[in-house]
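Justification of resources, computational component.

The compute hours requested in this renewal are based largely on the per-chain cost of generating structure records like the one below. Each record pairs the submitted sequence with a full structure-token output. That output is archived, and it is also reused by downstream analysis tasks.
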Amino acid sequence: MVSKQLLERQAARESNARTYARSLNLALVKGQGLKVTDADGKEYYDCLAAAGTLALGHNHPVVKEAIKQALDADLPMQTLDLTSPVKDAFVEEIFSTLPPAFAARARIQFCGPTGADANEAAIKLVKTASSRQGMMAFHGGYHGMTLGTLSVSGNLGPKTEIGGLVPGVQFMPYPTSYRSPFGIGGELGHQLCSRYLESLLEDPESGVHVAGLVAELVQGEGGVHPAPDEWTREIRRITKAHNLPMIIDEVQTGAGRTGAMWAVDHSGIMPDVMVMSKAIGGGLPLSVIVYDQDLDQWQAGAHAGTFRGNQLAMASGLATLRYIRAHDLPAHATKMGEKLRAGLTSLQSDYPWLGDVRGRGLMVGVEIVDPSQSAGLLGEYPNDSKRAKRLRAECLARGLILELGGRHSSVVRFLPPLIITEQDIEAVLQRFGDAAKAANQMQD
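The structure output for this chain reads:
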């Protein structure tokens, strides 16, 4: 069955809620490493990698072998929350990757197999431990699509038509130098962000009474904004001083993606809760929260899920985590990310609508802007979502899969597998440059 037939059948039967399938009109039949092939035989560089899930790319030999061994051993497919040798080894591997001081006091909870469910569990955990109801979150944050996680996510789009969101969420400014909420970038900008947060917690008339704070240290869906390490350390100081549990959402940043095993490693902080999913399952659905033992105050059954005992995911996740560490893929992600950002930055002189190139490790974003309009206080131009969509389409036509995020869907996002090589980077940049040349010719 060729792509056209598959895509027509999908459009006729699947819901209006489908997302990637609308902009990336693909019917895929094969994946190997960084590349995928559609039903018509066309090959693509996959720099989406299931939204960052495929740390080792498609069908990596160590992942396939781990799954085969699990199947050959007749492991139970699902075990709820019962233990097994594979589960025990997976937990040991997770703990061995954590900051030692955190691991020494840690507990782990297996959740339903999505990052959203793990974030739900984290919110329930800190609310139970604190006996408070509100939450603190950040502009631009993304934590899932359930009612609870939408409540602590910044994007208004998915929640404008629904009610019943969790009340009491206080949104805080996030330190984005390119578009600072205070019109001030750099060190002073992030100091203002942290000082504002501290003032709310100190002020008895601020109206803020929260159970915990949830943050990404590189915002992904929000537009690839890395938090400065100094800001992260300051937020940790403030939350500790106010006995406010700090949840770090590592769903997309974890397992080497940012150039460290976990995003918290860059700043050296010890959070209260770490939320993990995506890459930890080796491509199969899996999520956990790891948290400080003092928070372990909920009762049996306070958070459960039928598929939290996915043995195949634990086997593939264990193999993936071991491979990442054995081959120092975080350091490789740093090197490849620097090469990718340098190549993208070099294109800015030819295409001034490439407004900002940013990221950490192999989380990279390019913000598309309209330089024909008036600039803001920091010299930033308005977002140009129309050109961003055209650029994505031109990339796809040239065999490069990318997706958009950020405000007005104007940030082109790169989330390639961590095994990407220098030659792959060069090929990706060549395709992106050709697509930029075509998108540059669009009529305003």
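The first helix runs from residue 3 to 13. The chain has a mean pLDDT of 95.
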